[in-house]
């Protein structure tokens, strides 16, 4: 009788054991993978080596890929907080500290703002923009758009090679809906700051809200600062 009892319960117990082992196996595997990813991410963010920089760029691309589907909702929620839309690719930069620009806008105030912003960046000596007359040969297209749905004064759309982490192309856009609307009170100086800010993204700079910087995420109250020149010099140090 006892043996029969044992035999009846042998199979369920065996199945339970197998499931239990599989479950713990999965938990352990997930834990090991998480630790490895965490260590790699930590290394990538704290090391200046090329491999680490590429890995960091790849992680950002992966994060951007998953964030993409949610970005519309998120942008609407963040609309009141941001001055521009851009995705930062950590460590991404041009191969050299120079790029060609085609000014595509016909709006006189924006042409002036772009020209002044390009001249101001060139005056730093840290990065050189060259204005070209053929959009096909331009690394950067500087243009305008009008969008009342986001509260962004500008956009920098950067294409990055995920393997080399080098910037391939950037579309910089200034939002005429806000910049040229009197009720938003943008002076010519702040429009130029906005152009300098978007070109800063085009160079490879992130937002910087820790100090006086043209890369502050809101306000466009500052032009190019010493801190911004240092940031570009560091980005293109090797
Ligand atoms: Zn920005």
What does this structure look like?
- A 6-stranded mixed beta sheet has the order 1-5-6-4-2-3.
- It has 238 residues and is an alpha/beta fold.
- The chain folds into 2 domains: 2-46; 84-235, Collagenase (Catalytic Domain), CATH 3.40.390.
- It has helices at 2-46, 50-68, 71-78, 108-124, 176-179, 188-203, 226-235, and strands at residues 84-86, 98-103, 128-131, 140-145, 154-160, 167-175.
- The chain is built from 7 helices and 6 strands, in the order H-H-H-E-E-H-E-E-E-E-H-H-H.
- Bound molecules: zinc ion.
Q: Which structural traits does this protein have?
A:
transmembrane; 238 residues; Collagenase (Catalytic Domain); metalloendopeptidase activity; 15% strand
What's this entry about, in short?
The protein has 238 residues and is an alpha/beta fold. Helix content is 50%, strand content 15%.
Q: What is the count of β-strands? A: 6
Major beta sheet, strand line-up? 1-5-6-4-2-3
Average per-residue pLDDT, rounded, comes to 85
For this structure, what is the CATH homologous superfamily of the largest domain?
Collagenase (Catalytic Domain)
Strand content: 5-15%
Question: What name does the CATH topology of the largest domain carry?
Answer: Collagenase (Catalytic Domain)
Q: What is the radius of gyration?
A: 25 Å
GO cellular component, one term: extracellular matrix
GO molecular function: metalloendopeptidase activity; zinc ion binding
InterPro entries: MetalloPept_cat_dom_sf, Pept_M10_metallopeptidase
Keywords: Hydrolase, Membrane, Metal-binding, Protease, Transmembrane, Transmembrane helix, Zinc
